[in-house]
Amino acid sequence: SAEIIDGKHIAQEMREQLKDRIKQLKEVTPGLAVILIGDNQASKTYVSMKQKACENLGIYSKLIKLPDTVTESALLDIIQQLNNDQTIHGILVQLPLPDHIGETAVIEAIDPSKDVDGFHPINIGRLQAGGEAFYPCTPNGIMKMLEFHHIDPKGKHAVVVGRSNIVGKPMGQLLLNESATVTYCHSKTSDLKTYTKQADIIIAAVGIRNLITADHIKDGAVVIDVGMNRDDNGKLCGDVDFEQCRQKASAITPVPGGVGPMTITMLLFNTVESAERFSR
Ligand code: NAD
């Protein structure tokens, strides 16, 4: 049965390393500004988790709470101020935004050198072209998990299920950059199994509970589960039927305790990296 990829443990190790890097920065304290708009409960939870994680590491976090009536231009002004604020090295606008605010305009207003989510087109382009950039946290965290377990994507067939801008697409690009052969599957893919069964590495980033069963994977596959769903009892679960797939896979991430803990860690990682770049 499969080796369990323990995201909590890897995240903890990475956070210890970040503590050392923060110490080395001496007179500079890494600063993260988080903009939270409106009253979305999930957003509030994510933001408070991010703030707590900053606090634990000694990263300064500045929370800017705005009512969902805030205008787009007022929001853009605030982002502009943060772009010019020398105590801030990372700016994050918690999504989703209210309908009257354009997501593209907001993302593009963030200085790419402070875009620690890696959503700005400049960072997306640099991810594709190669070069110094911020990579989106969830897929970058998955790359760190693979590295930790000495799973080298080179020459492997990686099948990414899901093609969102925040997970699926950058995931495929990061794997390609490490010389995997990448296949993307999505909601319009006919006969998902045909593809997933060929995967040496499968990344499930969909949001459908038990979408990936033992029938979808080949013996010895590495199975990474990004999904965050609720089962009938309200318990957190992923896109993968974990109990079935762990019998067949060579390595697998659980939910919870897999990809999730890595995502926030990579946000801290990007913020520290940004502070290092600014202090050079
Ligand atoms: P999304 O809704 O933006 O994208 C879902 C993708 O799944 C789409 O590209 C769609 O084409 C594809 N899809 C839908 N139905 C499909 C099907 N039947 N077969 C194959 N593909 C199908 O979601 P997202 O933001 O990419 O997130 C995906 C999942 O990962 C969600 O459950 C989300 O909660 C979770 N997530 C977890 C973390 C984490 O840190 N653990 C971070 C981000 C997202």
TrEMBL record:
PROSITE patterns reported for this sequence: THF_DHG_CYH_2 (PS00767)
Pathway the protein acts in: One-carbon metabolism; tetrahydrofolate interconversion
Domain Tetrahydrofolate dehydrogenase/cyclohydrolase catalytic residues, every copy: 5-117
Keywords from the UniProt entry: Amino-acid biosynthesis, Histidine biosynthesis, Hydrolase, Methionine biosynthesis, Multifunctional enzyme, NADP, One-carbon metabolism, Oxidoreductase, Purine biosynthesis
InterPro entries assigned to the protein according to its UniProt record, in alphabetical order: Aminoacid_DH-like_N_sf, NAD(P)-bd_dom_sf, THF_DH/CycHdrlase, THF_DH/CycHdrlase_cat_dom, THF_DH/CycHdrlase_CS, THF_DH/CycHdrlase_NAD-bd_dom
Annotated EC: 1.5.1.5, 3.5.4.9
Pfam families listed in its UniProt record: THF_DHG_CYH, THF_DHG_CYH_C
Quaternary structure, from the entry: Homodimer.
PANTHER family assigned: C-1-TETRAHYDROFOLATE SYNTHASE, CYTOPLASMIC (PTHR48099:SF5), C-1-TETRAHYDROFOLATE SYNTHASE, CYTOPLASMIC-RELATED (PTHR48099)
NCBIfam families with a match to the protein in the record: PRK10792.1, PRK14186.1, PRK14189.1
Stated role: Catalyzes the oxidation of 5,10-methylenetetrahydrofolate to 5,10-methenyltetrahydrofolate and then the hydrolysis of 5,10-methenyltetrahydrofolate to 10-formyltetrahydrofolate.
Protein name (record): Bifunctional protein FolD
Organism of derivation: Jeotgalibacillus malaysiensis
